[in-house]
Amino acid sequence: KNIVQERSEAESVKLDGDEVPAPIVQNLHCYEYTLALVKPHAFRHVEDIEQTIQEKGFTIVKKKTFKFTPEQAAEFFITREERDPVKVPRLVCYMVSGPVRVMVLAKQKAIRRWLHLMGPVDPDKAKRIYPLSLRAKYGVNDIMNAIYGSRNEEEAARDIRFFFKDIIIEPSNAMESDISCEPSSNSFLAHKIYLREFVYPTLQKGLAELVRMKPAHSYEWFVNWLLENDPFSPKLKPCDLVKIPN
Questions:
Q1: Do 189-229 and 31-163 fall under one CATH topology?
Q2: What residues contact residue 28 under an 8 Å CB cut-off, 6+ apart?
Q3: pLDDT tens digits along 46-73
Q4: What is the pLDDT of residues 96-142, one digit of tens each?
Q5: Which PANTHER family match (predicted)?
Q6: Which residue spans within the chain are E strands per DSSP?
Q7: Which CATH class is domain 31-163?
Q8: 189-229: CATH class
Q9: Is the separation of the CB atoms in 128 and 101 below 8 Å?
Q10: DSSP single-letter state for residue 217
């Protein structure tokens, strides 16, 4: 195929399992969150990559430099990017070879737009079809392809929690706007994570205790139990309290 033919097929090119999206008009009231990872050999270009990300309208909500252990690299990439038993050892060895930069990005349709900006998995293909993509510019081969990105909403949630376990991302002002977000938006990703990690387990434990105790005034009992078992309240014993003199 020549370059013109390949460009005409741009919409069907696979990016880490997802199709390349067409450009979408941005609605600033509706955001998605996704994870971006700059791989070891491209780390020296991280400032230029971050500048490109911001120029494309993404907000870098949170970022940090991270060094994988072999166990962490295997856990993260085997279930996400590579299941080929031949390539897995190469990928793990490569990912532990140096530091990486991980970032939480926010933008309307951030997941699809980030995949689009990354370009195809194969840097050679990226250079032919998307010469301005990050993988075309910084990628070397299908292992050292410079950039990783979450492929869907569920994966974005897992990826963000892998690196930023305590992150709480404030939602956009979509609820205060008359502009509706599309159902695929994960604008409230952090809140879903918060509910799953903290609220639901606490409620389940409290309800189980309520059934076991069978108090006469169940509502008041349950309210008091929640106050006493708030996972974020300080746990003080009587001996920890200091008496303040009059």
A1: no
A2: 108
A3: 999 999 999 999 999 899 999 999 989 8
A4: 999 999 999 999 899 999 999 999 999 999 999 999 999 999 999 98
A5: NUCLEOSIDE DIPHOSPHATE KINASE (PTHR46161), NUCLEOSIDE DIPHOSPHATE KINASE HOMOLOG 5 (PTHR46161:SF1)
A6: 14-15, 18-19, 32-38, 59-66, 100-107, 147-149
A7: alpha beta
A8: mainly alpha
A9: no
A10: S
